[in-house]
Specification:
alpha/beta, globular, binds S-adenosylmethionine, binds iron/sulfur cluster
Amino acid sequence: MPPVPDRFGRPLRNLRLSVTDRCNLRCQYCMPEEEYVWLPKSNVLTFEETMRLVDIFVTLGVDKVRLTGGEPLLRAELPVLVRMLAQRPALRDLAMTSNGVLLREHARALREAGLHRLTVSLDTLDAETFKMLSRRPDHHRVLDGIQAAREAGFEELKIDTVVIAGVNDGELAALLGYARSVGAELRFIEYMDVGGATHWRLDRVVSRARMLELLAASHGPITELPRTDSAPAERFRLGDGTTFGIISSVTQPFCATCDRARLTADGMWYTCLYATTGTDLRALLRGGASDAVIRQTILDVWTGRTDRGAEERAAMPLRMPMAPVSTLRQDPHLEMHTRGG
Ligand code: SAM
Ligand code: SF4
Ligand code: SF4
């Protein structure tokens, strides 16, 4: 199937599947509250329902799936879903983003089920900073989880680090050294004003330019590497050969090449991280719609897509968090941990 272009010619290639909105951490930049309004369990799609949608998305050109959440490892029997996905040859890339806390327990089963690639989020090498940021004492488990991923044979390991001014911007060089030592590639992410980031402030964002300045000061000249696909990270190389990425969603948004869409655990489909409305695919599934009807619905939405959320936010004269806590409580689908990062 040739890829379906949206109104700006962007194909639908990349599906982020959130398998749960629950999380075992409370990262300040994502889930700053202790209590949340969770999706009702009965609304969460079964693996069969999820696969039916995935198979329809594949007919429209999706060839990359990333499992996310919330924390995807909190979803019971996740390797069963991974195995189902791995049996679809049209999915040339099957990845997962995890906070790593439960990886020691699950890495091997995920690998055996056929997961291709793993990204672990790690913002700091300091246990106290981790505790302050995530409000949980699990730093050692994340580091051990990364080790377990290596042992399980995940060779294309990535580590994602959200950089926040005054919190971990003094650790960039150390984090790069750590990533190199475990054979992973690090990607620094600019702190984004997504739903859930209610404490976001522009002066807490460490820009791509500032990160490069800090790294050049510690490592000397940095070479920018050519882009090879629509992945959000720009890649760079240090003089010693270490490569790393920067995802500069705030200061240099990349909406022009965005081929990503997100499906929440309860079957809402969003065509942008910042979209305030989505398409209720669960209602279609459970209402008895045929594959053809669901496919046409997705096709109509994608061909009409004009989203460029991060670019629009970058143009705002006074930039504030996307939504206050009260709005998020009314519509948890606006939350990053529900929508899937
Ligand atoms: N729980 C898993 C994890 O943390 O890896 C997967 C879901 S999490 C929402 C996916 C990614 O979104 C993580 O790498 C996280 O750091 C990132 N993220 C969450 N809030 C963010 C924010 N305000 N700015 C930038 N990245 C954010
Ligand atoms: Fe942190 Fe990921 Fe959980 Fe958000 S979903 S609180 S980023 S671990
Ligand atoms: Fe894609 Fe929306 Fe992110 Fe832009 S803001 S890159 S359109 S998801």
